[in-house]
Design a protein that fits this description.
The complex is a heterodimer. Chain A is mainly β. Chain A is 0% helix and 52% strand. By secondary structure, chain B is of the alpha/beta class. In chain B, the strands form 3 sheets. Chain B has a 6-stranded mixed beta sheet with strand order 3-2-4-5-11-10. In chain B, strands 1-8-7 form a 3-stranded antiparallel beta sheet. Chain B has a two-stranded antiparallel ribbon with strand order 6-9. The chains are: A mainly beta, B alpha/beta.
Chain lengths: 141, 192
Amino acid sequence: MDKIVNIGQSIHIKGELTGNEDLTIEGKVEGKVFLKDHNLTVGANGKIVAEVQAKTVMVLGEVTGNITADDKVEVAATGTMRGDIQAPRVVLADGAKFKGAIDMDTSKKPSMSASPSMSAPAPRPAMEPVGAGAPGKGANI
Amino acid sequence: MAAAGQPCGGLGRAVARAFREGKPQILVLGPLCGESVVFLAGRGARVHVDEVDLPAPIAKRQPGETPVAPHPFKIDQPSGVYDLVLAWEMFDFVPPERLPEFGAEIVRLLRVGGQLVFFAHLKPPAPTAVLPRYRLLADDMIVREEPTGVEIPRYAHSNLMIERAIAGLSVQNIHLQRNQMREILASKAGVG
C-alpha cells in the first residue's frame, strides 16, 4: 500500500510543492501543488491557495485556485472551492460551496457535445458517492 | 424513494439549442446541485457555478430620514459570454423594487442569441421558502428539491414585471405548469 504523506494542521507552506506520492494537506499551502500520477486530499482543516495538478483531488476543506486532474476531482459537502476544475470525472456534493467553472471535456476522449436530442439524454457522467474511503496510515510532516 | 421528474419543454429546447453550437458556456445560478452541473459538463459544456447573494429589499424610509442608496446588485461574472443562464427560481426571491436591477444583471451576462431559463410561481404557496435547487434528470426533465435552510421571503411577479426586468431579452415561451409555476424561456435579441 502506498504511503500517504500528511501536511499537519500547524504547517504553513509557501511555494511550489511537488512529489511522487499521495498527499493529504491539513495545514495551509500557498503557491503550486504538482502531484503527477498521485492523489491529493485537502483535509477538512486544510486550506490551500494554489494551482493544483494531480491524478485525483479530493476537497474536504478549502481550495482557492484552479485544479487540473488526470482522473477525478471530488468536492465533498464540507468542501469549499473557488476556482476552475478541469478533469474527466467530477463529483460535486450537494451542500458544497463552489464558485467557478467545470470542464470535463479533456483532449483524451472525443467531445460529447454533439447530442442535441431532447428526448434521448446523453450518457450520464460517472457519479460516485461522496466521502467513501478512509485515508490510510501515513507519515506526518 | 426517487422523486418523479417534471417535464420542462422550454428547458429542453434551450439546452438542445445551446449544444447545437459546439461547446456552450453555461452559467448555473442558485444553490449548488452537483449532479446537474456534472450532467451539463459531461455533455461537453463549460459550466460556471455562482450561488449569488440575492438583492435585499429596500427598507422603507421614515419621514425626515435621509435616503440610503442600496448596495448595487452585481453578479461577479463577465459580460456577454454565456450561451445559457439557468436562474431556476431566483426571480421569485427578488423583491419587486430590485427586480429590474436583478434582471439587467442577468441580461448583461448573456451573449447575443444567448438564452435564459427560469421558473416563477404564479401564486406562491407560502410567503417564505428556502431557495430550492433543481436536479436535471435529462435535458427536459427536472426535480425540484427544497434543501433545509433559512426561509426567505418570496414574491409573485407578474409577466409584465418580469418582461420589463429582462428588457433586452425576447420572451420565447411562458409555459404554465400544473403546479402554477411558470417556466420562462427568453433569448437575447440579435442574431440567433
